[in-house]
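Dear colleagues,

As part of the handover before I leave the project, I'm documenting each prediction I ran so the next person doesn't have to rerun anything. This entry is a single chain, and its sequence is reproduced below.
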Amino acid sequence: MAAKAKKRIGVHVGTAGGAWTAVERAVAAGANTFQIFSSSPRMWKGTPVKAADAVKMKELRAKHDVGPVAIHASYLINLCSQTESVRENSTKAFRGEVERALALGAEFLVLHPGSWKGLTREEGLTYAARSIEQAIEGIDFAGKDFRILIENTAGAEFSLGGKLEQVAELVECLKACAPVAVCLDTCHVHVSGYDIVSVDGYIETMKLVESTVGFEAVRVWHCNDAKAAMGSKLDRHEHIGEGMIGAEAFRRLLHDDRFAHCAFIAETPVDSPGDEARNVGVLRALSAG
């Protein structure tokens, strides 16, 4: 999408009234990319995509030049759970997420792999990779502009993806069988203990990104300021420029040519009407200045 010519900046939006309405909400917020849930993030079984909704979304995206589209998988999914029934439900739910993402023409499906509590990290990694492989069995991805994005997490104990190395390990396990890449979240990076606030810290953290997941694998940045301190492992999002990360760190990221191919999507709080547009506006101003 010629990302260098037109930076893709957006926000997570709702879908009340049909998935296609997300395009209108994104445009109203000043965004040219967006993220949605394809179904309730608190339910195991999602509603199949209506063909008419998918057609209308495609038409509106083309009309307004909006994309890529990311779908965030359900929060219930835990593909590396120690409990077999949870893994089975998660695998079925994740397959549904993939099917809905493809039906809607989304480019990305963002996934938190889950928690390996009660297992070793190696066991958790094995379960997660195996569950994803089972979930996508028989799905033909040929010719589709689609990637499953493994997202880094806030670094809570037993959370797969709390370290960049863990994200890289899972991607490596999956790349032979799945279209897979990476989503990085600024709040998660910060609270899991990586410095992106100071200039020197940013340089060192980006060296780690390069040596683990690699710059090209990063397709989406979730742009969220943080209410909590670096290393706190508290996943509390804040409005851009109003938290512990601060505006200058986002300016630095948005001007980093190594991520010129990325979409930058806010998952910031909606405390009052217009907050989506306000945060998109701040990111847009930082990218221009």
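The chain has a mean pLDDT of 96. Residues 8-288 form a domain with the TIM Barrel fold (CATH 3.20.20.150).

All the best with the project,
I.
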